[in-house]
Amino acid sequence: MMCPVSAKRSRWTTWLMAVCMAAALITLVPVGQARAAATFTNPLDRNGPDPWLHYYNGYYYLAATTWNSTITMRKSRTLGGLATAPETVIFNLTRPNGAGTMWAPEFHLLDGPNGKRWYFYYTAGRIPFNLGSQRIHVLESAGTDPMGPYNFKADMLDPQQDNTWELDPSILQLNGKLYLLGTFYNGSQPNFIRPLSNPWTASGTRRILSSPTYSWETVGGAVNEGAEVLQRNGKTFIVFSASHCSTPDYKLGILTYNGGDPLQQSSWVKSSQPIFQRSNANGVFGPGHNGFFKSPDGTEDWIVYHANSSASGGCDMNRSTRAQKITWNADGTPNFGVPVALGTRLAVPSGEPAS
């Protein structure tokens, strides 16, 4: 911008020169520096174990274990806003055959008899705080709002195999078919897979998907649980939690689908090493029971998980919900990196609108 210069300064010329100087300064500041990049910090919920997070129609939705008879959800325009968003009770489990001790909720938008509906899967006891009675159940939404309202749909029980507890439900969609994932007790704790004829009905018995065999899967107990699906570019992975949740060595492993019948254990290859685990340097212990979600513009993949802030943290409501972006290796496998320290400023998911 060129500005007129006058030997005789009037009030007008003084004002004009000030405007010109301000304009010049603005043009010297790069656009990228003119507005600081939006960031957020973890945790998203200080008391949020077993989290599930989904971005849908302009909002993030978060649910987590409550350990009581209520199912709650948070809703926010921004990821960081979930930390202060109110918890809304979307369903109460005090119904016939209901009870409480609600764990590991997940909600999936699936085809139902009346079109797309949210199917809300969770674990709860038939008798409150009787952990041996924990089973998998499902709700169905009346419409397409993740917040509901919801109606109870079904107990996800297999009459031929209802002889032990089942936990940590999730859904696999593969080759046009639907499967329920979970974990159960058979002396150790393996992950299972069960075929479904619709989002609430089993069409076959459970099959073992993975069993804890490596030393890193058996710290504090032989455990595989929390199986979660991650799909990209035609590849399907199942990420699971290993070792006992009360230990700082709770961590994530991964299965890779190699084709064939998903019900056959031979169709899945387990990595010999964990892919996400404790970081003493960052003060993160027992990271696990994760979920995955897309950025608002669909270009990024993110992980949501719980962790403790001390090695003595247990398997209780003090586990906090955290999220961070994952990347992809050249061979098409996911790279989770290292769990970041609480309070670290992270760039918000791509495409997130300003708050």
TrEMBL record:
Which residues belong to the signal peptide in this entry? 1-36
Which PANTHER family would you find in this protein's record? Answer: GLYCOSYL HYDROLASE, HYDROLASE, FAMILY 43, PUTATIVE (AFU_ORTHOLOGUE AFUA_3G01660)-RELATED
Protein name, please? Beta-xylosidase, GH43 family
Classification via Pfam families: Glyco_hydro_43
UniProt GO molecular function: hydrolase activity, hydrolyzing O-glycosyl compounds
The site feature described as Important for catalytic activity, responsible for pKa modulation of the active site Glu and correct orientation of both the proton donor and substrate is recorded at D168
SUPFAM superfamilies given for it?
A: Arabinanase/levansucrase/invertase
Family label: Belongs to the glycosyl hydrolase 43 family.
One GO biological-process annotation of the entry reads: carbohydrate metabolic process
**Alphabetical list of InterPro entries matching this protein:** Glyco_hydro_43 (IPR006710), Glyco_hydro_beta-prop_sf (IPR023296)
- Residue ranges annotated as transmembrane are none
Please tell me whether the keyword Signal is annotated for this protein. Answer: yes
Keyword set, alphabetical order: Glycosidase, Hydrolase, Signal
Report if keyword Chloroplast is assigned: no
